[in-house]
Structure prediction request, 103 residues.
Amino acid sequence: MEMQQQDSETYYREAGKKVKKIKAFYTSLVIYILVNSGLAAINMIKTPNHIWFIWPLFGWGIGLVMHGLSAFDLFFCKDWEERKTREIAARMQGYKKVHIKKD
Prediction:
């Protein structure tokens, strides 16, 4: 019974961490939209013949995409990390079996 409660608490804690990551992404997305809308407006009002607002839009956008992939576990998620750890550990065990001589 106590073990089940610990598992439940662990899952709840992990879920809380994930929610914080997603919330941080949405906050970044809103800031991205507001700031870049402002930059676009300034650009169109002050220098409409020279479109420069796209450069921060693209640069920041790349970072925002990476943040989103991380927040939603689409890029190097926990499952990937666990699979890769098992794969490397198995490879290392195989290496030791082949390269360590038995007396």
Observations:
- The mean pLDDT is 86.
